[in-house]
Design goal:
Helix content is 44%, strand content 15%. It is built from twelve helices and twelve strands. The strands form two sheets. Strands 1, 2, 3, 4, 5 and 6 form a six-stranded mixed beta sheet that branches. Helix 1 links the parallel strand 4 and strand 5. Helix 4 packs across helix 5. The longest helix has 21 residues. The radius of gyration is 19 Å and the shape is globular. The model has no long low-confidence stretch (mean pLDDT 94). Bound molecules: 1,4-dihydronicotinamide adenine dinucleotide. 1,4-dihydronicotinamide adenine dinucleotide binds next to helix 4 and helix 5. The site of 1,4-dihydronicotinamide adenine dinucleotide (NAI) has 26 residues, from helix 4 and helix 5.
Length: 347
Amino acid sequence: MVWVSGDLPQCLHVLNDEETGLRGVIAVDSTALGPAAGGTRFWSYADSNALVADAVRLARGMSYKNALAGLPFGGGKAVLQRPTGDYDRTALFAAFGKAVERLGGTYVTAEDVGTGVADMRAVRASTSFVAGLDASGAAAGGDPSPWTALGVFESLRAAADLAGIDLSGARVAVQGAGNVGAHLCRLVARHGAEVIVADVDEARAQALALELGARTVAADDIFGVDADILAPCALGGILNDLTIPRLRARIVCGAANNQLAEDRHGEALRRRGILYAPDYLVNAGGIINVCAEYLGESTSQVQRRIAMIAPRLEEIVRSAEEQGLSTNLVADDRARKAIAAARCVAA
Ligand code: NAI
């Protein structure tokens, strides 16, 4: 049975608690830069192989994301199987909190797809190695999604400038009208751009479209829609051999983690003349907020760090152009060097 391909993570912790139905893994990819930080995904997977493979890849993405964002954290991810039938959600997340506690601070968790602030409150009952709780006063905290959307929006604006597109007159296709996608649609609409939105939950997409005077398309049609920019804000693996030839957008810039099905798809986008904004670079706003909360920092420190995302994207796009490389390879190289440098200092 092949669970994990490519480099192995530093540690893989299996979670299996019959009493609450907690099943899943915590993947600690790297602690070279600090505790492994990354959210908890709560999703239905076809089998354990798919769950573990997702956790390992997402954890690696977190190592790269945290390193590029200049955060004193390594990368990790928890992926939990959503139980079928009835279950006590609070008890399940409290049991997960105990598992996080047992790792003694090696891994710090927060929200991801399928989890929210209420779940993190349940986790907090068992451990202090959690963020993404309620914000209070000027201190950082709360739902990371608006911060993620802000970093993506500022990146999208920078990418549009680089491509010579006026964002205020542009058409932006957003895949996923969830926590981040909805905030992003609002920012884009406020900027005067036309929003086209798709969600497998059609009612959700329609409600958002009604609020913003936007247009909806069927979930399968979002890739071929006539738009200047595609913003993937749903799940990963969506830039692949089937979707890339269909794209009409000149820029891909969105929040979803692991958008490229494989690294080579970054090159496929480059060959088609499509500017790809590396996902983990532009979607770092949420983890920046989570880490700031964990470290007891303020929202103004969060804003300062997020303001550095778009200039970092500009610099990586320019460097990729100069070297004739895809943007994802240049970003990966930067992240790996930052992690390796931390290992050298520690040795
Ligand atoms: P969410 O669960 O709130 O929203 C995802 C939305 O995508 C849902 O409305 C879902 O119905 C929709 N969806 C799923 N498959 C789809 C498909 N094939 N076509 C169209 N819509 C589809 O999740 P959230 O928090 O908005 O995150 C979105 C993405 O951004 C995820 O990949 C997540 O890992 C990533 N991300 C989120 C961060 C955050 O702060 N929430 C931080 C960094 C990354």
